[in-house]
Amino acid sequence: MELTLLGTGAPAGLPRPDCPCAACASAAGPLARAATSLLVDGSLLLDLTPGVAFAAARAGHSLGGVRQVLLSHPHDGPAVEVPAGLPQPGRVPDGRELALLTGHRVRALALDAPGTGYAVTGPDGQRLLYLPPGTAPAGLEEPAEPYAMVLLDVVGRPDALARLRAVGAVGPTTDVVAVHLDHDVPPGAEERRRLAAAGARAVPDGTTLEVGAYEHVPDLPRRTLILGGARSGKSVEAERQLESLPEVLYVATGGSRNGDTEWATRVSAHQERRPGSWRTVETCDVVPLLRADGPPLLVDCLSLWLTDAMDSVGAWDDAQWADGGERALEDRVRELTDAVRATRRTVVAVSNEVGSGIVPATASGRRYRDELGRLNAAFARECEQVLLVVAGQALVLRG
Question: Catalytic site residues?
Fold first, then answer.
């Protein structure tokens, strides 16, 4: 089964008309995207969009062989004139299957938001799934047979990808292609990095893909360290790394700090961002979790883990520090990094970068700064990917 992406952008396209944002300003030339529309084997058109006939011509195709036009958006499609020779657009009711004379079968999936998703099976038996923007499948059955290709709103609804993975509809060999791309993410390198974190990719408008053909997408890094200053966006970036996975254990090392209302507000903001399928455990005992099997871990953060470790060895007292406290902390850090090296789990850890700011005025403050720098360096050595987040922008240091 052959698929041509006549457009890969959001319904308004990219750049959006009259939008002055930085992402739209940079979406020029090959980075520009028309509204998403798919041509399957030259005979089935999924979504009729403005200029679709010209888009097909630019891609080296004609719409003369199209026998069926199906709409996925919640309305009856964009207000565009149906090109001469094309059949009138229609929609398959949820749960129903449409058999085409070309040998394709199209089944409509119920979604958790208005619109219709389509599962297309080609004459060769290959299967693809296409979802409209801002939607995820509802009522998925488990286990499911993996699709060869899935096209969906990866940036806007990463939880849709997580749901599909949870039931086996997206497997290790599924080609995940991002469509409905909007100005939420700057096009180019940042877009590719974000999609790679979800195990997905994007292609330019007019690209023709063979459904079922192997396409290499970089594996998700198994161990990632994300550094950043205060309010840099490092926790948001860490959550983004794992939000397309069906199950995550969030390891909160800061505790609840009963009575501290400002801290409670911070914790609440973090909790509201997390997908509902994630579990949370409040502990600094991270090593047993790294040694055990289980879902991916998000550890936020190592700087609070270090505070707890330094408390336990008496690091704030000069006499205790000199009388075995420093060696005890070295052992704690070594135990942690050894566990990271040996773990079989996917791990994303967050830590503060405090060595680039003001030199602390107290000896204990300087001790903490130095030990955090050493911990970050030791942890980073065990990670395939290391990111530094500055002003919400992730800089790749490794991986």
Answer: 270
